[in-house]
Amino acid sequence: MLDRSTHTIVQQVEAMRDMVNAFSEYARAPAMNIARVDLSKLIREVAWLYRAPEGQPAVELKIEEGIEIEADAVRVRQLLHNLIRNAQEALEGQADAHIEIAAGHVPGTGNGMTEISVTDNGPGIITDLLPRLFEPYVTNKTKGTGLGLAIVRKLVEEHGGTVAAENVPPHGARLAVRLPVRARGAEAQAEGRSLWSDDEAETRATARSEA
Fold first, then answer.
1. Three-state DSSP class for 124?
2. For residue range 27-53, what is the model confidence (pLDDT) as tens digits?
3. Per-residue pLDDT band at 148 (split at 50, 70, 90)
4. DSSP E strands: which ranges in 132-184?
5. What is the mean pLDDT of the chain?
6. Is 2.40.50.180 the CATH number for 31-207?
7. In the prediction, which pLDDT does 144 show?
8. Is residue 152 within 8 Å of 82, Cβ to Cβ?
9. Of 62, 84, 98, nearest to 152 (Cα)?
10. Alpha-carbon distance values, 94 to 176, 181, 193, 207 (Å)
11. If you write DSSP's letter for every residue of 63-117 in order, what string do you get?
């Protein structure tokens, strides 16, 4: 009984710690540190941390080489971690779990925008949640704080980018982040949003700034 009680207490303390850390990450707004970032290299470095040990989803990379952007590398790393962890949670307990991380320049933007996507072959996103997926506390998972994707949206919007989610056939979900190659202010966010086509807008839930 003592062992079980101690284990329960430790689990709850860890859950509270994770929640406090998530609140802190969502609320804080440290100064941006914009610099030239080798995005291809950064993604590979982050993905390497998730190489598939036994019982974890297999991770496949489809990354265009030589992608460089002006961004805050720490923030980009954080949003990547959040996207990958979100995919892992969606795949928990699935035997054939698979995650694809892709990155490249967005066609039709003159190499002015890049896209990073994380796709899983899990059960997908409940349709009713799609329009609100990047809002705080909106989740259909039993674990986590419900802030992971809200933090992703915040980090992306700080860079003047956009983030969207969609279900993919036959099953699974894809989350895509678009970031400008050159650092831009908040006034450029509207331009970034316009890069989503009308057809895409009908099938994607795009997180947008209210500013």
1. coil
2. 555 678 899 999 999 999 999 988 866
3. confident
4. 162-167, 173-180
5. 80
6. no
7. 56
8. yes
9. 84
10. 22, 36, 34, 28
11. E-TT-EEEE-HHHHHHHHHHHHHHHHHHTTT-TT-EEEEEEEEPTTTTT-EEEEE
Contact (CB, 8 A) for 181 and 68 = yes
C-alpha 23/C-alpha 95 separation (Å) is 32
Q: How many CB atoms lie within 10 A of CB 25?
A: 17
Say if strands 58-63 and 98-105 run parallel, antiparallel, or are unpaired: parallel
List CB contacts of 4: < 8 A, sequence separation 6 or more.
none
As given in the structure block, the two tokens for residue 206 are 């795009």
Domain segments of the chain as ranges = 1-30, 31-207
**Are β-strands 98-105 and 162-167 bridged in parallel, bridged antiparallel, or unpaired?**
unpaired
